[in-house]
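Listing S7. Sequence submitted for prediction.
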Amino acid sequence: MNDKKRLMDIINLIDYGKNVIDVGTDHGLVPLYLAKNNISSNIWATDISAPSLKKLEDQLDSKLSKIIKTKVTDGFKGIEKEDNQIAIIAGMGGNTIVEIIQSSMQFAQNLDYMILESNIASEKLRLFLYENNFDLMRDFLSFENEKYYDILQVKYGNRKEMKISDMYYGFENIENRNHLLEEKLVIDRKKNLIFRENIIKNSKNNDGLEKINERLKAIDEVYERWKLEN
């Protein structure tokens, strides 16, 4: 797991002794690590794809089978709520994570916390969580295989105020001046300025221009916040 930076970042957020649900587990790397390292003794590993889940099931011996239970299902459907329970939803886009939480909102609200990981549409995920009163306890970037991943630890209730820069780039990255965010902002700014120029030159209806301008505004706000803090 030493080469799986984002998965270790997720694992490091998990308290010992929690009952864990790993949604979209695929190969089951996180449940296997949690079980083998005695971090959790009660784990549900779920996936919407039976062939994907079989990759994990083939690795379960008699000891691991007592700790890791598998289920082919969509999100939290068919999983019983337990005390001291948390969930991991990783390896999918922000829109998909929103759909999973939205379809089982009461279940999600009653978890101790959720750990969410996305590398697409994270701003939509943050906005959804804010609008539904989830507190973003942690929100930071991870980097693996030339990709940036947003990792969030969230709990229902007592949401924090959110600026547009927080929505796009995560409050913790901004507050700590995360070096990964500094790198990502340079890339995002250049990319979106090119997108904007191409739309203005080539599009008759300026589709997408509002979204690009919003992201550029968020980038400018991050730079301004850093300037004020220095």
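Caption to Listing S7: primary sequence and predicted structure tokens for the chain studied. The chain has a mean pLDDT of 92. The two ends are 37 Å apart (CA to CA).
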